[in-house]
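Subgroup meeting minutes
Present: P.N., E.W., G.H.
Scribe: E.W.

1. P.N. recapped why we're keeping a running log of single-chain structure predictions: easier to compare across weeks, and new members can see raw inputs and outputs side by side.
2. G.H. added today's entry (413 aa).
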Amino acid sequence: MKVLLCLLPFLGQIAAFVKNINMNNRQQQHHHRSGISSSSSSSSSSAAAASASTTSLSAAPLQPGDPVMLVGPGFLQLVLARHLAQAGFRPIIVAPQKKLDSFFTNLLKCGPGDDLDDINKQLRDDSTIGMPEVGDPYFGELKGVVFCAEEAVLPPEFVSRVLDFQDQGRSAFADGRPSRVICCLPVDGKIQKEKSNSWIPIFNTDKVQQDNWNAFAKAFQEHSCYSSSTTSTNDSVGSIVRFGSLLGGSYDGPAWLRDYGIDEGMYKMSLEQYRDMRERAFDRYKLGAQVLLGNTINPKPSNQETMEKTALEDYPNEIREAFTILGDYPEMDRSNRHTVAAGIVQALQVYPTTPTASSSCPKEMTILSKARSELPSPEEWKAMFANPSAADWPDPYLFDPSAFGLQREKEKA
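Output recorded in log:
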């Protein structure tokens, strides 16, 4: 028997678990790993962990074939796993056992009669409820870590428990420490109050969520992987990727999206009315990216809505509606999960520096979506990392529907 840490569930038990992490003793069959725990049953001593947390980390951009731990749970975690696998990495999904069972039954289907692909099978086989021990697959081989929960369910202690983990005095990471670490956090100051996919009408947990996000962000920013005072890329391997309200992540869009998306059932896994329509629309029309420096959004100019109403008032409704899904029309504070995942894949392969350079990414950046039915190329990501900025808001008076194959004819009076 091993002492296992069941990672936190979603809403309803967040506060209780942050104060008192539930430790469960149970024998695992397929997912036979050591939990992310500070218990003495793990052979790593608190003194060793304390020493590791103050030691600057080794830096090397990750390469295809490297194993990367994805600490969740959430839809973004699953979409990122698909993107990493398509790029040749070995993503390891970390989540509570009940979540893993649900994921591989409903979203990354691996059951009898399912159209199983090799990626889902590999993701299932590599998934785990915690950190590997000596003798487990990937122990001593891990290269990267991405904290990618969509909800504020990870307690701040998880930062050091993952990044500084040891068993029998040995690190689970190939170089004795992670080579690249990314922490995904929600962007602050959102204007559109988009509900999360797990929104439940009878609960109001906004304050608890924000407090938990703040505590986790503080713990990550204070860890040596992020806070190293040196500017050397060999010491600073941690960065923050901020995301807006998350939508999309399946494959109701371009045909090639099927290689990256999770099951379409995710569109309907919300109690919010019409949520599935917005999720699908993002996968069809909002795959483009904006990379903004730091923790920031892209608010509309004060006269944008008035200009759009005036400039497009004589066009049919379908033309007016098309304006916001064409021509790189930006989102203020919303992000497609595919877009965020694609950006993380590229960010894992470069160093985080301040200021950014041609072969690096920002120490902290926000990825938002814009209207485009294709993801950025690796070259486009590099350009956005080197020169992060919000996308320009389009001038509706210059809008030419015929350039997009739409009828330019206006409605007759």
